[in-house]
Design goal:
Length: about 375
């Protein structure tokens, strides 16, 4: 409000009369309030993301980028904008949505806050043009930086979880698929591949979407077997490719740099080629003959031993591994294993998962490729 001096004859004194803002000044105050609210949103959202980068991922690089952006945002948060704040008169303080009341997983929490930050940056980009020269340009560039941060963070999380994963469940068709996978997740499983060679695409998509939601609610990686298109359709964390599937380079172009790509290998040549082509992890096997690889001879423990000495990326021994031979595979050098029937056909998938992990977690992990 503006103040103006005038003479009040009834009191023989000067009193202060209050005049309303002009229309232009009213609009200016509204713009200031919009800028103030969205500057707060960006800073708060970035701080939530930064805390996970710092304490959840132990990534000084990602946490540092969040902090730098917070400080840049703070430099635009002037006293003039703060003075326009009117929290009691803000009609939006009581607005909420049921989805805001709970988060199903760390991923959903982070995605919600990235959306909040990105939307607020777009508001600042547009309304900032009415406030200061270059403000719109500055926040446009920051919005792109946040997009990059989101992509890097999600990719970093996947790769770090891959490095920590010791047990990999490859599913097989079964009526109680979701129940079996969830039982394994309750046992500590952190890596799941959906594999069904015979179902139609509609069925695959429906099941894959449910499995992805289930895996992410337990903070586990979800991979699709063979099909890059299905992986993209259901927003999976990656794809696993056989030797006869599309080249890794093409899959990478389609999936982008931050989703995971695995490759099945049966010998040293296939291993070295997969590493050279940029696979994030490989399968090593089949260690023993298995009905899931009909007609494919076992690679044996010799190949496991070779991988232990020569493979520079995460690898999983696979093929006929069960609770009775897991320690033979470990003794041959495996630190990670992938299984199908041992869990999918188990009467108590949770207990079998826990047993596998108890054996694998006794091993001191060897250094491997790190991700930024």
């Amino acid at each position: 409000m503006k103040q103006a001096d005038c003479y009040d004859e009834s009191t023989n004194g000067v009193v202060v009369m209050v005049e309303p803002y002009s229309q232009r000044e009213q609009i200016q105050q509204v713009v200031y309030r919009i800028l103030d609210a969205n500057l707060d949103r960006v800073r708060e959202g970035l701080r939530i993301i930064e805390e996970w980068c710092r304490f959840g991922l132990n990534s000084s690089q990602l946490a540092g980028e969040c902090k730098r952006m917070r400080q840049e945002v703070a430099s635009w948060h002037t006293a003039e904008l703060r003075a326009a704040r009117d929290t009691p008169g803000d009609a939006g303080t009581e607005l909420t949505h049921p989805q805001e009341e709970q988060r199903a997983s760390i991923k959903s929490l982070l995605q919600a806050n990235f959306c909040r930050v990105e939307e607020a940056l777009r508001v600042l980009e547009e309304y900032g043009k009415l406030y200061r020269p270059n403000m719109g340009k500055a926040f446009k560039q920051m919005r792109y930086r946040v997009y990059t941060l989101e992509s890097n963070l999600m990719g970093y999380q996947r790769h770090q979880l891959l490095l920590r994963s010791r047990l990999y469940l490859v599913t097989s068709p079964t009526e109680n698929l979701l129940e079996t996978v969830e039982a394994a997740l309750k046992g500590g499983l952190t890596l799941v591949q959906y594999r069904d060679k015979n179902a139609d695409d509609a069925t695959r998509i429906a099941l894959a979407e449910k499995l992805r939601q289930l895996c992410h609610s337990y903070n586990a990686i979800f991979i699709i077997n063979d099909r890059v298109d299905l992986a993209l359709a259901v927003d999976a964390d990656g794809v696993h490719l056989g030797q006869q599937d599309m080249p890794i380079a093409i899959a990478r172009q389609l999936l982008g740099p931050h989703r995971l790509i695995g490759r099945s290998t049966t010998n040293s040549d296939e291993m070295q080629r997969a590493i050279a082509e940029g696979a994030d992890y490989i399968g090593v096997g089949p260690v023993y003959e298995t009905p899931t690889k009909i007609g494919k001879p076992a690679a044996g423990l010799e190949y496991v031993n070779y991988a232990a000495k020569h493979c520079s990326i995460p690898w999983f021994a696979i093929g006929g591994i069960d609770p009775n031979n897991i320690n033979d595979v470990i003794d041959a050098g495996a630190q990670r294993v992938a299984v199908v029937r041992s869990i999918m056909q188990a009467e108590q998938p949770t207990l079998v998962t826990q047993y596998f992990l108890s054996q694998l977690n006794r091993i001191q992990p060897s250094p491997e490729k790190s991700y930024v």
